[in-house]
Amino acid sequence: MSLVLRGGSVLPALLCLVPPAFAQDAGAIPLEQIEVAGRAATAAGPGSGSLTVPSVAEQRRSLNQTVGSVGFVDAAGIQNRYANTLRDVIKDVPGVTVQERYGQEVRLSIRGSGVARGFHLRGIELLQDGIPLNLADGSGDFYQIDPLALRSVEVYKGGNALTFGATTLGGAVNLVTPTARTALAPTIVRIDGGSFNAVRENFQVSRVVGPADFLVNGTITNADGFRQHEVQRTQNFNANLGYQIAPGVETRFYAGLYFTDQKLPGALTLDESLRTPRIANPAALSGNQSRQVATERIANRTSFLLDVGKLDIDSWAIHKSLYHPIFQVIDQDGWTYGVSPHWAGTFDVAGFRNDTILGLRAYAGQNAALQFVNVAGNRGAQTRNSLQSASSLEAYGENRFWFLPDVALMTGAKLFSANRTYSDKGGLPGNLAAQFANRTYEGVNPKIGVIWQALPDLQVFGDLTRSRDVPDFSDLVQSNAANTTFVPLQAQRAWTVEAGARGRIDRLGFDVTVYRAEIRDELVNFSINAGLGIPAATFNAPRTRHQGVEAAVSLDLARDLTGVGDSLTLTQIWTRNDFRFVRDPVYGDNRIAGLPRDVLRTVLAYARGSFMLAPSLDWVPTGAFADHANTLRAPGYALVGLQASVSVDPGLTLFLDARNLADARYVSDVSAVTNAAALTGSAARIFYPGDGRSVFAGLRGTF
């Protein structure tokens, strides 16, 4: 939202912790008073931002007004490392669990969203520049996210994403791309690469021309991968064009082209993962399993600065084509489109400050979903001819009423109606019966909380939120080796309570939240046969509970260590995941399979001028359970890494990123099953080995 500094404001902007080793501005952040008002400064200086996309500093300040747990990443802090996947971007945000599989395929979970789902995404809304990336049914993946095309990342955990209208268990991740007014430099050229024959080239060009500005960013990546049959080829292009139509009126157009060709190495047995981690699953080789995705995206945001507050009107369209040989050839082509007006403003109520957000969203899409017999990666006989249609209507609002100068009551709610329609013509071999299903999910998700500005640099908050996760078509349309069936699942419902504090006291920065979610009808996955690449099935668990700790602490151990302005900083990040069934008729109080209980990351960073050196330790003391019966779990592991960078000339930076230096063999992810003790043969291949020792280096020039 657009922000104006005003001396009489009562709400300080607050610190959102970013580990100093990975952000240019990661010291104590000066807390300024801010207020949404009817006029905004839109100077065109470097980094100043504009009406449609505020400056990075304003993005951070706006995020820190959220009553609840959030995270912020300034992408300036990831410029000098090999950021290839979403994990490389947000691994330092507490409460976010990202597990790598191969290439750019990762499992992303916040507070156990999609805890047992071993593919794509569920329970988290992905946005780019505040505009949805997910398809109309809520599904999504990560192939169009280019870490080198980001300026910042905002993480809204759980119901704290209501500012975008998202009320799923996991929340939302907003990926903000640069504009010519927020870019780190007018021109950036970069090349990096290293282990597994990885080579990546990136360019970015941006200019401001009077009332207009434009930016173009492109990245081409080629890598053979750690494992056999893991070759990755991606081409990502992002562009935006902004124009200041009149004082207080600006429009910005976005365009993106994303092409991915990723070979799939498949899952292995636990023994294979630890003894021969580089081999591919035999079924992945014989079926030439891969994922070929072509996505085109256009979007627009037009912003109006009003006498009170600011109105943004977003619109978008996404076309996605998927060719995906696994147990069968999945051949899909579809469109998603939507529109969303959003207003935010501040005004007085009986002499008290009041901040309000109001929004509407309407979006829909259709996906032609075909299937064929997989003949070595090619289409054989057709087995499925279906159409998947989804639509949603949403209205949401959030209000902060400052009944004391340093205490605000937050209330909010979202009303929604979401439809899922599935039709299959049938009449094909192995698919003789036609199918038609229509399901509508409706509800109201309320939220209430309080925020207390205890000290100028200390914020304390607590809130209670209601979430609903509507099944996507990967949940509703379930496949096995014989046929495909529409399963009329219930929506997942949960109440989540959280309490936390964040801020900075002298040399100590911290961001700590505890939460507990009581869930009904959780959408829980289990693999039918991960070894053959058959997608997981989904069921509604009657009662489950998710609870945990999201903590990051950063301590400046030393300043002016050698008398030349250098520093030594220790950062500890801890995510505690305690996800269980509750008196389940089958699984009792067992842990839900899929995610490890504790994920810890320790970084010791030394900085001196333009030189930075940061050894790190990623530690998972106990691996995730592989099955809901809790008979088998992956082993724990510890990975040692090292990052270093130095400016060799103004505008020219060299960097090194070394990972898993001890060459540990470990399991990075699992495909959850019901009972691993009963698995034999290919069905026991449910583990994904992590990458071995790797070293990447790069050169980045700015001018």
UniProtKB/TrEMBL annotation:
Chief localisation class: membrane
UniProt entry tagged with the keyword Hydrolase: no
Cellular component aspect of the GO annotation: cell outer membrane
Domain TonB-dependent receptor-like beta-barrel: 213-661
Domain TonB-dependent receptor plug: 64-172
Molecular function terms from GO: siderophore uptake transmembrane transporter activity
Subcellular localization: Cell outer membrane
PROSITE patterns linked: TONB_DEPENDENT_REC_3
The keyword Transmembrane is annotated on this UniProt entry: yes
InterPro entries noted in UniProt: Beta-barrel_TonB, Beta-barrel_TonB_sf, Plug_dom, Plug_dom_sf, TonB-dep_rcpt-like
A GO biological-process term: siderophore transmembrane transport
Name of the featured protein: TonB-dependent receptor
